[in-house]
Amino acid sequence: ILNVEQSPQSLHVQEGDSTNFTCSFPSSNFYALHWYRWETAKSPEALFVMTLNGDEKKKGRISATLNTKEGYSYLYIKGSQPEDSATYLCAPNTGNQFYFGTGTSLTVIP
Amino acid sequence: DAGVIQSPRHEVTEMGQEVTLRCKPISGHDYLFWYRQTMMRGLELLIYFNNNVPIDDSGMPEDRFSAKMPNASFSTLKIQPSEPRDSAVYFCASIGGSGMNTEAFFGQGTRLTVV
Questions:
Q1: Is A54 helix (H, G, I), strand (E, B) or coil?
Q2: How far is CA A102 from CA A23, B18, B43, B61, B91, in A?
Q3: Which long-range contacts (CB under 8 A, 24 or more apart) does A54-62 make?
Q4: A72-77, strands of its sheet edge to edge
Q5: Are A23 and A101 in contact, with CB atoms under 8 Å apart?
Q6: How distant is the Cα of B97 from the closest Cα of chain A, in angstroms?
């Protein structure tokens, strides 16, 4: 089982604030890292899949970076909106193991 | 494609009964995953298949749990006998294309309650 750590566990921010959270994972045998957004009562939806060290991906106000050598990825949300409230999961994999972190729960207060 | 389809959406059963959860992956996807979501442990991988073959079942909690994938379009997760601590939401997900460097698509989940 991969040791995946996400921090913080939960986060409350005001609407308009920018925020970021971290996913840490073993750097050995790295293959790819996925970020998912999981709204309450729905199923997880993919945000990004990243494979290369130094990769940076962006979707609207959300972006992510990847450091495979030191084993971490950051997810950034610029100008948070209430609809960004969700749990954000990362899932690094080695190509034959695919495990999710416990997520960061984000609440954006209007 | 209708996406990953799970059935039933909700299941309430009595302790000791057999429960079967079903999943239809997206057509053409080679990987199928079963996850369990609980408040305590978040999203746990139970088992996954590649081309209908079980690859990693180390997350299956006990012998009461079993999973099969008889063909590329169908998988089952069976719990026999069920216990109250099995109550959780069970998700199925599939990946296609180039494998694990492409996104996973999740079903809507089956909420299992064992009383």
A1: coil
A2: 10, 29, 7, 18, 15
A3: none
A4: A5-7, A19-24, A72-77, A62-67, A56-59
A5: yes
A6: 13
Asked if A29 is an interface residue toward chain B (Cβ–Cβ < 8 A), one would say no
Which residues in chain B are closer than 8 Å to A100, comparing Cβ atoms?
Answer: 35, 42-43, 45
Nearest to A42 by CA among B8, B27, B73, B37: B37
Return the residue of A nearest to B102 by Cα. Answer: A49
A7-28 pLDDT per residue, tens? 999 999 999 999 999 999 988 8
User: pLDDT tens digits, residue range B37-83?
Assistant: 988 878 888 999 999 999 889 889 889 999 999 999 999 999 999 99
Q: What angle do CA B24, B21, B68 make, to 5 degrees?
A: 70
Compare all CA atoms of chain A with the CA of B58 and give the residue at the minimum distance.
A1
Contact A12, A109 (CB under 8 A): yes
Q: Which of B35, B102, B108 has its CB closest to that of A49?
A: B102
